[in-house]
Fold:
Amino acid sequence: MASISKFFVLTALALLSSCGKDGPAPSLGCSKCRVFLTAATFDGNMNGVTGADDLCMADANKPADGEYMANLTDFTNRAFDIEWVFRPNTPYYRPDGTLIGTTGSDGLLVLPLTNAISTVNATVWTGGSPNCNFWSSASGASSSFAGTSNSTTTPTTGIFQACSTMSRLYCVEQ
Structure:
C-alpha cells in the first residue's frame, strides 16, 4: 500500500509542477485531441476570445463530444503563456482521425504540418497584434492575422485582413 501512495504522490507532484505560470498546462481533458474548422464565418467582432470559444461550442462542425476553445490570440486575454489552447508536445487530429501534427514544447504546432487542419480552402482568423480591438471590432479600419485552412505551411499566418472580413475559426479540443 505504501508503494501505491508514494506513486500517487510523485505523480501528483509532477502534474502540479507543470501547471505553473511558465507555460500552458498539460492536456488532461482529451486523450486524442481534435481541431476542427468552423462551418460558420465571423467578422472580427466575436465578443473577445471567450465569445469566440462560445462560437466554437455552438458550431455545426463541432464533434458531438468534447470542450473546444478558439485558436485566437490577443496577447492579453489569451496568448502562448495565458490560457493557450494547444498543449505542449501533443499530437492533434482532425475529427475524422487524420493526424494534423504535433506541438512543440512551446505549445505551438510544428510546421510544416503532417496534414492540413482541413481539406476545405478557407481563410481562418488566428490573431496577434493587431487583433480587431481584442476581437470586439468589425471595423474595416482595424485588422488582424489569419491563415489558410488547407495549408500545411501557413495554417495560422500569412494573411493580413480587415476586421470586417468574414472568416472561419479553428476550434481546439481541451
